[in-house]
Amino acid sequence: MNQLTKVFEKQDLTIIEVDGDFQFLLKDVCEILGLSNPRMVKERLEDDVSSTYPIQDRLGRTQQATFVNEDGFVRCHSRQP
Questions:
Q1: What is the DSSP string of 3-70?
Q2: Cys staple from 26: which of 12, 34, 37, 66, with CB 3.0 to 4.6 Å?
């Protein structure tokens, strides 16, 4: 699994590659889209678009974080409950 950070709309977007598919850090996606509560966004997403993976934080510690695939990225923008 590779972890990288890209700048999107002047904000960091953490991306990992898992089995050839890109996964986007839900927290970063929500910040880019102007959504204030990643936990509520995750609750309305289907299980097949989000997963939890370990990542390295800025201090080098391993943290468990929620990621969404490309479909999940698109669905995050939908404001329907």
A1: EEEEEETTEEEEEEEETTEEEEEHHHHHHHHT-S-HHHHHHTS-GGGEEEEEEE-TTS-EEEEEEE-H
A2: 66
